[in-house]
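Run log, item B.
One chain of 158 residues. Sequence copied directly from the ordering sheet:
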Amino acid sequence: MVKTVNFFQDETIRNRQSLLFAQVALDVNDFSFVAGTSINSLNINFERFIPQPLGNQKRKFANKLAPRLALLKKINNTNIYASVAKGFSPPTTEELLPRGGAINLQLAAEDGINYDLGFRGTFFKTLNVDVNAFLFRLEKYYCTKTRCRRWKFFPECR
């Protein structure tokens, strides 16, 4: 998808984001195994004209794999499942090009791993129960900070 934005006639932004996803599932007796992955990329081209023209600027976030593995065990009317997945999120346009702030082309993509454990079942033919616990470990992320009530910047947080 290509999107060109011209906010206030002082900058032009063009984003191209791509995503490809594949998944395979295997059912063996009362078990289901699922493996999947996606590959993500983001390219951003922009020109800022105020306070002075900067020329065409580019930032490419290299292709990243985001794998996912899941296991499900069926027991009568109940399912117990677990999964682990890696995630990838490139910076937003606002993080890279904040209004009234410096251009942040050095920002990297945020990465994290999600662990999921759950239980789903039907009891007495009409009572559906779904219990889920997860742990999301964000390895690299950015905070929003504001100066002078309007200038935003996004430092890396740990």
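Observations after the first pass:
- The CA atoms of residues 140 and 158 lie 7 Å apart.
- The mean pLDDT is 79.
Flagged for discussion on Thursday.
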